Amino acid sequence: MIDGKLGCRYTHLLTSNLGKVTTPLLLWFDANWGKEKALMSVILSNNSFTIFTQDKKNQTLMQKFYSLLGSFLLIAFLTVSGNLKAQNVQIQSSSFIGLPATSCTNTSISVTALKLCINITYNGGTFSISGNTITVSLDYSLGPICLGALAVDVQTISLGTLPAGNYNVVVEAVLNTTSVSTLNTTLSVASCCSATSDFSPSLNAACIGDSVYFDNTSTGATSSQWYENNIAVSSSTNFGKTYTTPGVYSVKLVVQGAGCSDSTIKSITIANPPTLDLGPDVEICPGTQVVLDAGGGRDSLLWSDQSVFRSLVVTSPGKYYVDVYKSNCKVSDTVEVSFKNVQDVNLGNDTTICTGDTLMLDASLAGASYKWQNNSTQSSFKVSSSGTYYVTRTDTNGCKVRDTIVVTVDANCNTSLIENDGFVQVSVYPNPVKNILSIDLPVSASNNYTLEIFDLSGKLI
Q1: What tens digit of pLDDT does each residue of 101-134 get?
Q2: pLDDT tens digits, one per residue of 133-160
Q3: Bridge partners of 292?
């Protein structure tokens, strides 16, 4: 016997020589199990009993099974952890009634569910169809207390007449507005009409400005009627349209047979094309770069050099283009990059001058600015000592050019001329010379002189 009564709080559970109970008996009560308070239920049947304990604090469900042999108690424990609600109703199986299913007969589904609480209430069943998926929902409710007992619940839900096709069927148990158990199956519905409707769109997803062609592949049809978003649009065999507005379009084809009709519905998605602007053609200074940006939020893109990154760094002249893809839309843009016309600066070749002489380096260009090695900003620079001299010139386009020259001062480079049996010091620079040769000749203005210059080969210049 079990020492206790309905509704009492227990501190001990005593069992001894239960005997044989031929009819299942359900008891339930609140109990103190150790230090934890719990809601308990007991099922007695055939020399055994099962105790279900629900911990009120953490909602853990514990099932304890007792079997009696020779008036001794053998105990086995099975603990099931987790959310109690998620285990109170379980979809066990489903089957369709009146197979094979056809498009002109009602179809029903029988669902078997296992309830773990005897006080779970069935509120009814519903179903919905989305594309080729049928969702069947069995609605249950349960109060704050679970009266533990296993119960098998079988419900039949009518799906009515379904269009011909192959369906994925999802059967779910909903307890207190939460889906707690699901079962997946399939259903094939055959057409009972001599005409079978079907069509193939050239594109399932397209872009504004694209044309979509719907190829009628129906069989046994005597006439056709096309609908777009439930509005009749054409009675021709096939249908096509250029879309100018984004959105999801439901296209239905209804065909007539011998005293019957059949229909097929398919959806296509029309998207806005992505925006793309690489900007106008651009000129850059030689030695610089420009970054072309295809923008963000793309599904993918491809540049003319086969790179796939958002930006392209350009250092050479040429035409560059990019293809951008977004939501099945493709847009392209092209930009031409060219070099600005830049005049080089030339300080001449490295050279040698004589001690006491000067060399004028000229980098002048109309409208340009200059920066020499000593931060001088004049267009020319006078050199009188050995060193490395350079200038950076910026033209009116903002393009920079630079040149460098090495100047060496030679203390032994002076020459002399014989004049009236005397020597006259002559300075010749730069040496070697590229364009302009300077000659310092200290002579009297009252005399006439003849000056001959020969190159290294001895040729008179």
Answers
A1: 988 889 999 999 999 999 999 999 999 998 889 9
A2: 999 999 999 998 888 888 999 999 999 9
A3: 312
Nearest Cα to 219, choosing from 246, 189, 198, 234?
198
Q: Which is nearest to 236 in space by CA: 218, 262, 211?
A: 218
Question: In 3-state terms, what secondary structure has residue 86?
Answer: helix
Q: What is the pTM of this model?
A: 0.45
Cis peptide before 432 (omega within 30 of 0): yes
Diameter over CA atoms, the chain: 158
Residue 249, pLDDT score: 96
**How far are the Cα atoms of 137, 340, 345, 401, 436 from residue 372, in angstroms, in the given order?**
85, 23, 12, 12, 22
The three-class DSSP label of residue 40 is strand
Distance CA 380, CA 362 (A): 4
Q: Which residues touch 441 (CB under 8 Å, ≥6 apart)? A: 417, 424, 426, 449, 451
Closest by CA to 348, choosing from 363, 358, 368, 370, is 363
Contact between residue 211 and residue 268 where contact means Cβ atoms under 8 Å apart: no
pLDDT tens digits for 287-310? Answer: 999 999 999 999 999 999 999 999
Among 274, 269, 239, 275, which Cα is nearest to 254's? 239
* Closest to 249 measured CA to CA, from 208, 195, 297, 299: 208
Residue 1's closest CA among 100, 99, 73, 98? 73
- pLDDT tens sequence across 409-430: 988 765 544 444 444 566 666 6
- Omega of the bond leading into 100 within 30 degrees of 0 (cis): yes
Distance CA 197, CA 25 (A): 58
Hey, how many other C-beta atoms are within 10 angstroms of the C-beta on 43? 19
Per the rule left: phi > 0, alpha: psi between -120 and 50, beta: everything else, 118 is: alpha
Q: Is 255 helix (H, G, I), strand (E, B) or coil?
A: strand
**Listed residue (170, 106, 166, 116) closest to 138, CA to CA:** 170
Residues 6 or more apart whose CB falls under 8 angstroms from that of 54 comprise 38, 39, 40, 60, 61, 62, 84, 146, 148
Cβ neighbours around 364 below 10 Å, total: 11
**Strands, E assignment, 56-105:** 61-69, 72-80, 89-97, 101-102
